[in-house]
Design goal:
The structure holds two protein chains of two kinds. In chain A, 32% of the residues lie in helices and 29% in strands. By secondary structure, chain A is α/β, with parallel strands linked by helices. Chain B is 67% helix and 6% strand. Chain B has two domains: 2-39 and 165-357, no CATH class; 48-158, abc type-2 transporter like domain (abc type-2 transporter like fold, 3-Layer(aba) Sandwich), CATH 3.40.1710. Chain B is built from 16 helices and four strands. In chain B, helix 3 (59-70) links the parallel strand 1 and strand 2. Classes of the chains: A alpha/beta, B mainly alpha. Chains A and B meet through helix 2 and helix 3 of A and helix 1 and helix 10 of B.
């Protein structure tokens, strides 16, 4: 039985349809990603589920509880990390965690366990306003884990972090999942979604335009991979590449050629033959598979970071 | 309850660890008091030129005349009304008191009678003090005489014999003012900051009831209000030999009630205003009229008649009146229960609006 069920969710701000008929469900134990550019409606969607915003219409059921019926019951069983981390600036890390532990009626993790979980031991007596962005974000994640939540919502947890801090956050997210909690993750980083999520809902303009595992999303939208190279000698005429096995189409940009192929190995071996015959001379040969970024570009006609 | 206490302690720590806020909250009223104290308190024996025209030859006229003469800070010149008013216009007198003809008869007949006071409003702070003293005396004499066979020993009324210092008159007003500013400047911007820093939203994502969050904030402000009271009174009593007349319990009661009314007003503003700038605008717009129309710095009598309804509506008018009555034993402008009632009314209205307008973000 799904831990979250959303049916035909709608939310309008003035003229803007922030969430425009969204339906999905989240299975227990999975990492579910909401992927899309800023303003796609991801945050509004999760904040409605978290009970922070009201919905205009639709049904939301969290852990078997109707959102309209008992928001507080839901709030005491979930953990929330908000996009902008609201912390008491003058309290220390320990004090903030202690404070949040007092908010939950049921069992809570010990302050020390939480501090170790997010690796803030050295900063435990530092006031939160003196923490770096990554440290604040980690504290914010610790606060989301206080009550042994059954579902953890992480909203853009790695935005603004340097690559090292980002990797450390990914590690923490994996640990949360191993601990048995379901994770709902919103992000606009494609690689993050590809790396962490079991299933991804791609959102744009308040709607879900695709929902599947990252692999399936790529396979459904791109049956081909791309072989790219430059040639150091004069290029043969265009037709040369089109006739190679498995090639679907080609693109050419002065010295750079991209071959889209159903079977990259077959194409590559013929290409190597051409190179041996010295018809071409490779430089910077690459084979790449499509990414979620390409999926998004194909589905919406725009890049996600625009 | 556990949660409320934790949240209260957390807010208190936040407040105490912000040195600038702490300093201004506690230092501002003190600075105010010190400035007033030092500027006006050549203070030990201020003396005012007062004109007195006694046109009533009955016992009331005599009693009042004697009572005014006994006020240590009044230097009395007697004469006819016209003479004295001419002197007032020349600047030789601060205030002229006219005891009208037939006052004693009217009082014996149980009718209302008025003692006329003519004063120079240009020096409104001393006019405030003088009017207070006159009111006290008239009130005292009135109490002694009303309904009873005439007693000729009125000059011994305790009110008139009491020494009044500047602090006695200004400190209650400044306490009232600092409670008002605690509510306006101390509450709304802090709540909007919590909102802008997203702290409220984060709290909103926990199962905490919103009433607990509000209650912890209100408790914090109340603590600050009581600390301000303790500080101001200590300075008044120790530094300026002020006398606290009424019950301390009643005083605390009014400080709490007054603080709550203004705090709820602050929360109402925080609900109305979207940004810090809007908060500043609204609070300043309310602060100045309330400060100057409430009779704390200027006697209500100097204000034009059309403003009186505003004066009568402002909560600070009643808080100031109650604090004066309790701290100094001033004659009441309103009964204490009326003061309490009006303040409670403001508390209920602003409180309901504050809850209705409260926003997490």
């Amino acid at each position: 039985m799904p831990v979250i069920e959303v049916r035909d969710l709608r939310k309008t701000y003035g003229e803007t349809r922030a969430v425009d008929g969204v339906s999905f469900s989240v299975e227990p134990g999975e990492v579910f990603g909401l992927l899309g550019p800023n303003g796609a409606g991801k945050t509004t969607t999760v904040e409605i589920i978290e009970g922070l915003r009201t919905l205009d219409s639709g049904d939301v059921n969290v852990l078997g509880v109707d959102l309209r019926r008992d928001v507080r019951a839901i709030k005491s069983r979930i953990g929330v990390q908000l996009q902008t981390t609201g912390l008491y600036p003058r309290l220390t890390v320990r004090e903030v965690i202690d404070l949040f532990r007092s908010f939950f009626p049921g069992a809570t993790r010990s302050t020390d366990e939480l501090i170790d979980l997010v690796e803030l031991r050295e900063k435990q007596n530092t006031q939160t306003k003196q923490l770096s962005g990554g440290q604040r974000q980690r504290l914010s994640v610790a606060l989301a884990l206080v009550n042994y939540p059954e579902i953890v919502f992480l909203d853009e947890p790695t935005t603004g972090l340097d690559p090292q801090a980002r990797r450390s956050m990914w590690e923490t997210i994996r640990q949360i999942r191993q601990g048995g909690a379901t994770v709902v993750l919103t992000t606009h980083y494609m690689e993050e979604a590809e790396l962490l999520c079991n299933r991804v809902a791609v959102m744009d303009q308040g709607r879900i335009i695709a929902l599947d595992t990252p692999d399936q999303l790529i396979a459904q939208n791109f049956s081909e991979s791309a072989i790219e190279f430059e040639s150091l000698v004069e290029m043969p005429p265009e037709g040369t590449f089109k006739t190679l096995p498995a090639v679907l189409r080609t693109e050419r940009d002065s010295r750079r050629v991209t071959l889209f192929t159903r079977d990259s190995m077959a194409t590559l071996s013929e290409l190597t033959a051409l190179a041996e015959a010295q018809t071409i001379k490779f430089n910077d040969l690459r084979i790449r598979r499509a990414t979620l970024e390409d999926v998004f570009l194909k589905l919406t006609g725009k890049r996600i970071r625009d | 309850m556990k949660t409320l206490i934790q949240l209260y302690i957390a807010s208190l720590k936040e407040f105490v660890r912000e040195p600038m806020t702490l300093f201004w909250t506690l230092a501002f009223p003190i600075l105010f008091i010190l400035i007033f104290g030092l500027v006006f308190s050549d203070a030990d024996s201020p003396s005012y030129e007062i004109g007195l025209a006694v046109n009533d030859t009955g016992p009331a006229g005599q009693a009042l005349g004697a009572a005014f003469h006994s006020v240590p800070v009044f230097k009395i010149t007697e004469g006819s009304r016209d003479e004295l008013i001419a002197k007032l216009k020349d600047g030789d007198l601060r205030t002229v008191i006219v005891i009208p003809e037939g006052l004693s008869e009217k009082m014996q007949a149980g009718e209302k009678a008025e003692v006329e006071t003519v004063y120079d409003p240009s020096n409104s702070t001393s006019a405030q003090l003088i009017l207070q003293i006159i009111r006290q005396i008239v009130d005292g004499v009135d109490r002694q005489m009303a309904g009873a066979p005439v007693r000729l020993t009125v000059e011994a009324t305790p009110v008139a014999a009491k020494e009044a210092t500047f602090m006695d008159f200004f400190l209650p007003g400044i306490l009232g003012m600092s409670l008002m500013q605690l509510g306006l400047f101390g509450t709304a911007p802090a709540l909007v900051a919590l909102r802008e820093q997203q702290v409220l939203r984060r709290l909103g994502a926990t199962p905490l009831p919103r009433s607990t969050i509000l209650a912890s904030q209100v408790l914090l402000r109340l603590t600050i209000g009581l600390a301000q009271m303790a500080l101001l009174l200590s300075i008044g009593v120790i530094g300026f030999k002020m006398h606290v007349q009424g019950s301390v319990l009643g005083l605390i009661g009014f400080v709490v009630l007054g603080a709550l009314s203004f705090i709820s007003m602050g929360y109402m503003i925080a609900g109305l205003a979207k940004t810090q700038d809007a908060v500043t605008g609204i609070t300043s717009m309310l602060n100045f009229p309330m400060m100057f129309l409430s009779g704390i710095f200027f006697p209500v009598e100097v204000m034009p008649q059309w403003m009186r309804p505003i004066v009568e509506a402002i909560p600070l008018t009643y808080l100031g009146d109650a604090l004066r009555q309790i701290i100094v034993g001033s004659p009441p402008a309103h009964s204490l229960s009326m003061d309490a009632g009006v303040l409670a009314g403001w508390l209920v209205v602003c409180g309901l609006l504050a809850i209705r307008l409260f926003r997490w973000e």
